[in-house]
Design brief:
- The protein is of the alpha+beta class.
- It has a single domain, classed as Glycoprotein, Type 4 Pilin, CATH 3.30.700.10.
- It has three helices and four strands, in the order H-H-H-E-E-E-E.
- It starts with 7 loop residues before the first helix and ends with a strand.
Length: 170
């Protein structure tokens, strides 16, 4: 082998690569469609995952707000000797403009279990003895029974504040 002289395989390689580079001016339509399809599939998966994450974040925010409202109501009862009236409760505890993450009001019902036991929401024989505090959840519907399908997405303060979560997780 002589240095400086090209072998036939090197000549063929250079000729082949030069011709390929000269004739390759862009992507084919098939290549572009495949890349576009991959992008669409990835976007679909990420959007659905993001929607689920966003709903879980709303539920977590609602739980935190209900727990905070419960503390405010208990502090009000300690200061005033009773819980606020149902009609003015948010105003009385200084949270007049608060709504749940779905834009609906929070629901509060003070009661006396001795005079109105039928008004209490109940499941498995457990109930609140001071007040009900809940959000109707994403669908905005509820029922007194937690077994009703309309109540499954409700977020409730239950068992005098020892449980706050989705009814469906109870």
């Amino acid at each position: 082998m002589v240095i400086g002289k090209e072998t036939s395989s090197i000549k063929f390689y250079r000729l082949f690569t030069n011709n390929c580079l000269k004739s390759s001016k862009g992507f084919t339509l098939v290549e572009l469609i495949v890349v576009f399809a991959i992008i669409v599939v990835l976007a679909t998966f990420s959007i659905s995952a993001f929607g689920s994450f966003r709903e879980k974040a709303k539920i977590a925010r609602c739980i935190a707000e209900i727990n905070g409202l419960g503390k405010d109501l208990n502090a009000y009862a300690i200061d005033k000797g009773s819980y606020p009236a149902e009609a003015t409760w948010l105003n009385d505890i200084g949270r007049a403009s608060l709504v749940d993450p779905w834009g609906s009001p929070y629901y509060y019902r003070p009661f006396n279990p001795l005079t109105s036991p039928d008004d209490m929401r109940q499941i498995a024989g457990l109930w609140n003895t001071d007040y009900d505090l809940y959000s109707k959840g994403q669908d905005g519907q509820t029922d007194l029974s937690f077994n009703d399908p309309r109540s499954k997405d409700d977020i409730v303060r239950f068992s005098d504040g020892s449980y706050t979560d989705l009814v469906s997780n109870f």
